Amino acid sequence: MLKISFYILSSTEERQRSFFCCKLVEKAYREGYFCYLLTDSDNQSRMLDSLLWTFRANSFIPHEMYLGQLPTVKNTILIGSLSPPNAWKKLIINFSRQPLDDLTKTQRLLEIVDNHPQRKQIGKSHYRHYQQQGLKMTIFHLSY
Questions:
Q1: What angle do CA 9, 60, 5 make, to 5 degrees?
Q2: What does the pLDDT average to over 104-116?
Q3: How many domains does the chain have?
Q4: How much is the average pLDDT of 109-132?
Q5: Range of the domain at 119
Q6: Could you identify which of 36, 77, 94, 141 might form a hypothetical disulfide with 63, taking C-beta atoms 3.0 to 4.6 angstroms apart as the criterion?
Q7: Taking a C-beta distance cutoff of 8 angstroms, is the pair 34, 88 a contact?
Q8: pLDDT(73) > 90
Q9: CATH code for position 77
Q10: Backbone dihedral region for residue 134 (phi beyond 0: left; psi -120 to 50: alpha; all else: beta)
């Protein structure tokens, strides 16, 4: 059964949102999930790719950018702006401005919203989109 979680951050800083995203990716990896991190663009993907290498000194998270070619290693985190490949649809972290439409193979969807007015509005739009599909969501308010 699909579980959708919204993480509402108190910060308005994009950098804080990006760091929190890396923490979610790290948590998923440590729990044995090889998620897909959906972004808006190749530039945003590259930024998160770089940040995953540096956000925590002792952390190692195998990851690579997805540009349409499947990785040779299945046990890796993929980052990209394209639709996730089937093997990576189980857990999706949506860092993009668009809600997901095809959730048939997805078990977990994580949305990260902060207090920046524009991103807050995008988060509300995603929430309404999923609500109109009759999906249940959990909201976590974090002082991050």
A1: 30
A2: 96
A3: 1
A4: 97
A5: 3-142
A6: 77
A7: yes
A8: no
A9: 3.40.50.10110
A10: left
